[in-house]
Amino acid sequence: MRERRTPKHVGTYNKNLVLEVLMKQGPKSRAELSRITKLTKTAITEIVEELLSKNFIVELGQVNTTRGRRPTKLSINPNLLVLTLDLSGILIKGAIVNPKGDILMMDSVKMREIDDLLRLIERLYEPYKEKIVAISASVPGLLELSSGKVILSTSLNWRDVNIKEIIEKKFPVPFYMQKDTNAGILAETWYGEGKNYRNFFYLLLTKGIGLGIYLNDRVLDGYDGIIGEIGHTIVEIDGKDCWCGKKGCLETVASIPVVLEGYEKNDINDALHLAIKGGKMEKAIKYLGLSLSNVIQIFPPQAICISGNIPKEVLNYITERIKEYIIPNIFPQLRSKINFYYSNLGENSLILGAGVLGFIKYFNR
């Protein structure tokens, strides 16, 4: 049964629409907001007054025009900052991000225990504590978004860790988290090529393999945040043991750590190129492509974005090669309609996505 849309829902939707325009497109006048959002001038006036009263937006002053009354530009309050975290890589990264997606400060740490993470947050928090409105994180693994608990993450070696409770106990701002693949989708739709599509997949290659799904302009969250675990679909019957308790999962044959087994990892770039020459990367790409082709038959996307904390030339190689295993294994009418690309946001995509999450949650708290 579909939820009935009440006036409150409509008001929240319209308010978010205005905030999204200001965050994505920069300062706008009231008239411009009315034209872009297709909301009436009366509705825009009411929304703007509410947002000004909450200090979410500010007036920048009047703009010179050749005729008529000079309009006043409105902007997201530049003094609102979010402390963002990317917990997906070998190094845990943190940053201070403003509403435009500018990174004002960044730091990282090799996390051995949660106290390492808390010290990283503290180093970032102290210089900007008067302006930080939220802490938000991109997190790998199985999450329980409603409670802020990480159910299981082998990347972090966490099981049943309530990271929200731990962080909010130490810092006086709200904490929000999102699955790493969905944080990547937020970054793509706000700052990357994903803004050009209503439906696309976001394939994330880090220590594990995850798939974010953007369907009809919505990020799919699944049941309480559990979705897109393509890395734990079975590709080899009675294959290698996987950390999830099953055998033969995609991650046991195609994850970056598996591809790099047997290679010296002091220089990841060199190791990945050796894996390409030695054929291990090709096997991984084959399994990735076949697994994706199965999902495409269920949710046909307009595009597939491939991202990860690996060099761009390797991402480009994977992007080009994976098509060879996908195209022959999907419906003929889809073969020429899917665009394949690798994210141009680089290694900070999950940091930026977590920032978008933080601002969205703060504005709707």
What are the key terms here?
365 residues, alpha/beta, Arc Repressor Mutant, subunit A, Nucleotidyltransferase, domain 5, 16 strands, 39% helix, 23% strand, disordered N terminus
Task: Describe this structure in a few short sentences.
The chain is built from twelve helices and 16 strands. By secondary structure, the chain is an alpha/beta fold.
Can you walk me through this structure?
The chain is α/β, with parallel strands linked by helices and 365 residues long. The protein has 3 domains: 7-76, Orthogonal Bundle (Arc Repressor Mutant, subunit A); 81-183 and 349-363, 2-Layer Sandwich (Nucleotidyltransferase, domain 5); 193-344, ATPase, nucleotide binding domain (Nucleotidyltransferase, domain 5). The chain contains 12 helices and 16 strands. It has helices at 7-25, 30-37, 41-53, 114-128, 163-170, 180-191, 251-254, 256-259, 268-278, 280-298, 312-326, 349-363, and strands spanning 28-29, 57-62, 72-76, 81-86, 92-97, 103-109, 132-139, 142-144, 149-153, 158-162, 175-179, 200-205, 209-215, 218-219, 303-308, 339-342. It has a 5-stranded mixed beta sheet, sandwiched between helices. A 5-stranded mixed beta sheet has the order 14-13-12-15-16, sandwiched between helices. Strands 1-3-2 form a 3-stranded antiparallel beta sheet. Helix 11 (312-326) links the parallel strand 15 (303-308) and strand 16 (339-342). The longest helix has 19 residues, at 7-25. The radius of gyration is 22 Å and the shape is globular. Mean pLDDT is 90; it is low at 1-5.
